[in-house]
Amino acid sequence: MTIAFDRIGKTFAAEVQGIDLRKGIDKAMVGTLEMGLATHGVLVFRNQRIDDDAQQAFIEQFGPPVVTKLKEIASGHPHFYDISTVDSDGNPIPEDSARGMYLLANMLWHTDGSQNQPPIRVTALHARELPPQPPPTEYADMRSAWDDLPASRQRELDGLAVEHSIYWSREKMGMKMSDFSAETLNERKPVQHPLVRRHALTGRKSLYLASHASHVIGWPLEKGRALIEELTGHATQRKYVYVQEWRDSDLVMWDDTWTMHRSTPYSGSHPRRMRWCGVRELAPV
């Protein structure tokens, strides 16, 4: 069956038809999916009842898998992390715990791995266990947000560099530097990325924003943060946002170079477990 991309309503995202990830994918499929990501930003694979081995085999076709370097890795697997309401023993994760606050930060608009160098390029999230009414995930199109800026504004922004830091985004959730180990502080130092990126396949420009974006290099601190807040507000207007309504065994894959996303609140008693993985860029950005 031929792979097809069906745009979801009036959004930029698309559902992928013609793939059963349990059977794996070949190089030709990878190339098709790469162009699908470059075109649509967010790809939704419905009813993918895959296990860890199949998810690992899938994601590693797109580049070097991210090593999570977190204590709470999913299923003992170094490339997976569970975006979950319960721990590995099924116990609820307290919101005021370090892991709880870390996960709550996912409700901020962010781009996976922008606090790293090289950053994350592609993310895949698989719905392993959902409540009866699962909370949606929202995705923002930073390419259209860039296109809609006046040309004069684009000229002002192009060429600016921004510092990204995991500590800045977690500070917004009430975490302190003392909540991080000395090893983490040493390994996860702030990095710099361009505010405007050009896509490797399409050549189109987009904003590159995230809750990790702290300030503009060479600008007064508060002026740079005001700019980041302004652009984030612009890029997350409803006309730029796709809302993913999760179904059982959905796998959603997205291009981190030109999309942001965020989780939405959930306080139900039924567990929600999403298995995360991603691949990084091959070179610094």
Largest sheet: 7 strands, mixed
Instruction: Look up the CATH topology.
Output: Double-stranded beta-helix
Order of helices and strands: EEHEHEHEEHHEHHEEEEHEEEE
Which outline best applies?
Answer: globular
Number of strands: 15
Determine the number of helices (DSSP H or I, runs of at least 4 residues): 8
Question: What CATH architecture label applies?
Answer: 4-Layer Sandwich
Describe this structure in words.
The protein has 285 residues and is α+β, with helices and mostly antiparallel strands. It has one domain (4-280): Clavaminate synthase-like (Double-stranded beta-helix, 4-Layer Sandwich), CATH 3.60.130. The chain is built from eight helices and 15 strands. It has helices spanning 27-40, 52-59, 98-104, 142-147, 151-157, 166-171, 182-187, 221-235; strands spanning 4-7, 14-17, 42-45, 81-84, 120-129, 137-141, 161-164, 191-194, 196-198, 205-207, 213-216, 241-244, 251-255, 259-263, 273-280. The protein has a seven-stranded mixed beta sheet with strand order 1-2-3-13-5-15-4, with helices on one face. β9 (196-198) and β10 form a beta hairpin. The longest helix is centred in the C-terminal third of the chain and has 15 residues, at 221-235. The two termini are 37 Å apart.
